[in-house]
Write a structure and sequence with these properties.
Helix content is about 45%, strand content about 5%. The chain is mostly helical and about 150 residues long.
């Protein structure tokens, strides 16, 4: 997933090896057009297990302040922090943050990975990369068949 985020389908997993296009799409641009890369997936597509793992990593106060609150600032949700910081209770602040951020149509897995890396939380970024889908199969573009041919009698 990290290679896909760095260079898309043309990226190699290892230097000198096959590209992701060759490995996953059989070197077919047509096949790659039917796949939505993992970094472009909306954050709501994150699995429950991955989400819970992120919450376990980001909910506890970090000695350098690199926790869910700083992530909210990194994601441009600074105005939502008071609403999210209701205190440690039955619901995770990181989960609240993810819920709030998921309301934005442009919030993607790749953007979250970038925010976590920028924050210096590489273990959380690695957790997200390991637990996210590499790609999703999308529907082929619909073709308008045009008018039906006349029925002969």
């Amino acid at each position: 997933m990290a290679a896909l985020q760095l260079g898309g389908w043309q990226e190699s997993v290892e230097p000198g090896s096959e590209t992701l296009l060759q490995l996953l799409c059989f070197n077919s641009e047509e096949v790659s057009q039917l796949l939505l890369p993992g970094p472009q997936l909306h954050v709501s597509s994150m699995s429950t297990v991955t989400r819970q793992s992120l919450c376990q990593l980001l909910d506890p106060a970090h000695p350098m302040g690199k926790d869910w609150c700083m992530l909210a600032v990194q994601m441009g949700l600074i105005d939502k922090v008071p609403k999210l910081d209701v205190g440690a209770g039955s619901y995770s602040q990181t989960a609240r943050l993810m819920d709030e951020w998921a309301n934005l149509p442009e919030s993607s897995i790749g953007d979250l990975v970038t925010a976590l890396k920028t924050l210096g939380r590489l273990e959380a970024a690695d957790c997200l990369l390991a637990g996210s889908s590499l790609y999703r199969i999308s529907s082929p573009p619909s073709r308008d068949p045009g008018p039906a041919p006349p029925v002969s009698r």
